[in-house]
Design goal:
By secondary structure, the protein is an alpha/beta fold. The protein has ten helices and seven strands. The longest helix has 20 residues.
C-alpha cells in the first residue's frame, strides 16, 4: 500500500445555494453573493488539499434531499479528482463519525476531515495533521478561534468525540478534549485558525488577503475584490 493509500483527507461541503449557504454573511452580502463566495472558498480549499502530499482526497457532501442527485452531480463536475461520499446521519457529529469511520474501515490508517471555508489555512497545518498521527497521536485537532475546530483526524474510530459533543457551540473543542481525556486518547493540536462564518471573519480574511501572496486563495481574493470591496463601509 502506498503512503497516499494510507492517508485520507476529506472536506465536508454542501452545494452552494442562495439562502442556504453562508447565511450569517447576509447582510452585507446578498444571498446570491454569499452562495457565490462559498463556492470560491470551497474551490480554494480543494486546491489546498491538492497541495498536501501523499493523501487520498475526498469530498463528504451533504445531499440536497433523498434521491436528489444534484449535489453529487455538482461536486463530480467541480472536483473530478476527488472521491465523493454522501454524508449520512441525524446531525453533524453523527455525519462526521460516519465519514471518518467509513474510510478507516476501508483500510486507511490515518483519516482527517476538515471544513470548506478556511481558504488561507497553511498547507503545512494539513501536512502536520498526518505527521502527528503517524508519530503517536490518537487524535489530531485543528482549533478554530471560535471555540470549535477546523479539522479532526483519527487513526481509529472514536465515536464519543463526535456523537457526544454538541456541535456549533463555543465549547466544541473543550468538550472534545474532555472526552478524549476520558477515553485515554493522546491528542495533538495544530495551529489555531479561523472559519469564514460571520462578517468579522470576512473582514479579517479581506485584510489577510491584502497582505498575502498572489497565489493564496485566488478565487476568493478575486471575488472579494470584485463584489465586496465595500463590506467594511456597509457594516
Amino acid at each position: 500500500m502506498t503512503v497516499a493509500a494510507r492517508n485520507a483527507l476529506l472536506v465536508v461541503a454542501k452545494r452552494p445555494a442562495a439562502g442556504r449557504t453562508k447565511t450569517r454573511l447576509t447582510p452585507p452580502l446578498s444571498p446570491e453573493q454569499a452562495a457565490a463566495l462559498y463556492e470560491c472558498l470551497l474551490r480554494d480549499t480543494l486546491d489546498l488539499i491538492r497541495r498536501v502530499p501523499d493523501v487520498y482526497p475526498a469530498i463528504a457532501f451533504l445531499p440536497d434531499a433523498p434521491q436528489d442527485g444534484r449535489a453529487r452531480d455538482y461536486f463530480a463536475a467541480l472536483a473530478p479528482d476527488f472521491e465523493l461520499l454522501p454524508q449520512e446521519g441525524a446531525d453533524l457529529g453523527a455525519r462526521l463519525d460516519n465519514v471518518l469511520s467509513h474510510y478507516l474501515a476501508r483500510g486507511y490508517e490515518r483519516v482527517a476531515v476538515m471544513n470548506s471555508d478556511g481558504p488561507t489555512l497553511p498547507v503545512a497545518s494539513l501536512t502536520a495533521a498526518f505527521e502527528e498521527l503517524e508519530n503517536g497521536a490518537d487524535v489530531v485537532l485543528g482549533p478554530a478561534d471560535d471555540g470549535g475546530y477546523y479539522l479532526i483526524g483519527l487513526k481509529r474510530p472514536a465515536p464519543r468525540l463526535l456523537r457526544e459533543v454538541r456541535m456549533s457551540t463555543p465549547t466544541v473543542l473543550a468538550d472534545t478534549l474532555a472526552l478524549a481525556a476520558e477515553e485515554g486518547l493522546r491528542v495533538a493540536l495544530l495551529p489555531i485558525w479561523y472559519d469564514i462564518d460571520d462578517v468579522a471573519a470576512l473582514e479579517r480574511l479581506q485584510t489577510e488577503l491584502m497582505n498575502a501572496g498572489d497565489g493564496v486563495a485566488p478565487r476568493t481574493r478575486a471575488f472579494l475584490a470584485r463584489e465586496t470591496s465595500n463590506v467594511r463601509s456597509e457594516t
